[in-house]
């Protein structure tokens, strides 16, 4: 899967589109500080991320 938007079992679309979903959208966005950071993080290739 090249794009997270294409994965049927992801909450990504519900968070980005403010759709009714089973995830606490605001709590998830808070983890990334804001929606722009959430989107940016998920557009990165795994090799580009520095996970600690």
Please write out the topology:
Layout: H1 12-16, H2 25-31, H3 35-43
Question: Would you write up a description of this structure?
Answer:
- With 52 residues, the chain is mostly helical.
- It contains 3 helices and no strands.
- It has helices at residues 12-16, 25-31, 35-43.
- The protein is globular and about 30 Å long.
Give a quick precis of the structure.
This protein has one domain (4-48).
- Report the count of strand segments: 0
What distance lies between the first and last C-alpha atoms, to the nearest angstrom? 24 Å
Q: What is the overall number of helices?
A: 3
List the quaternary state of the chains.
single chain
Radius of gyration: 11 Å
Return the domain count.
Answer: 1
Structural class from helices and strands?
mainly alpha
| Main pleated-sheet profile | none
Strand content: under 5%
The secondary-structure element order is HHH
Shape: globular
Mean pLDDT: 82
Please mark out the parts with pLDDT under 50 across 5 or more consecutive residues, or reply none: none
């Amino acid at each position: 899967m090249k794009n997270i938007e294409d994965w049927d079992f992801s909450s990504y679309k519900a968070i980005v589109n403010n759709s009714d979903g089973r995830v606490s959208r605001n709590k998830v966005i808070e983890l990334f500080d804001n929606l722009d950071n959430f989107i940016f993080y998920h557009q990165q290739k795994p090799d580009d991320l520095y996970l600690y």
